[in-house]
Amino acid sequence: MGDSIIADRLRSKESVFFNHSVKKASSKVVAALQAPTPASCASGSGELDLYSLEIDKAELVATSCAQQLEDYRSLEAKVKGVIESTRSEIATLSGELRVAKKVRQHKEQYEALAKKVNAHAPKPTTMAEQRELEEELRKLGYDKARLDEQVSC
Predict the structure, then answer these.
(1) pLDDT exceeds 50 at position 110
(2) Whole-number Å distance between alpha carbons of 153 and 91
(3) For the chain, how are helix, strand and coil distributed in percent, rounded to 5?
(4) How far apart, in whole angstroms, are the C-alpha atoms of residue 47 and residue 29?
(5) Is 40 exposed, middle or buried (0-12, 13-18, 19+ CB in 10 A)?
(6) How far is CA 62 from CA 57, 59, 100, in A?
(7) Domains of the chain: which residue ranges?
(8) According to the model, what pLDDT value does residue 59 have?
(9) Nearest-10 crossing angle of helices 38-118, 22-34
(10) N or C: which end of the chain has fewer CB within 10 A?
(11) What would the DSSP string read from start to end of 26-86?
(12) What pTM, to 2 d.p., does this model score?
């Protein structure tokens, strides 16, 4: 509600917060003061009592609103704290994810290299084959030399 509307209602002595307006209570009290009869005094007194109860009710509502406002501010602070901790956790986890991705990439590279290496025979087997081939080559060299001698004779 705008401040001008509240100011207008206060000038006319009416309020949206109270069921009994100031105008109504004051008119009954003025009527009781101008023509003091037991009925008018009781009516004026009753209106003032009702107005007093409405003021007490308004004070309780204001106190309750203030408490709720404080509770909401406290809750807002807690939520902001949770948001900040979640943001920092996300940042930490993002860093861990980057590291894990690099580790995974390295493992994949190692696996690819391991497949290439495993495609070849082990060194002792290769060395044994090489010795056999060298032995066979030496024998073939002797055979060639013997056959060359036979052909030249």
Answers:
(1) yes
(2) 90
(3) 85, 0, 15
(4) 8
(5) middle
(6) 9, 5, 56
(7) 3-120, 121-153
(8) 87
(9) 170
(10) C
(11) HHHHHHHHHS--HHHHHHHHHHHHHHHHHHHHHHHHHHHHHHHHHHHHHHHHHHHHHHHHH
(12) 0.46
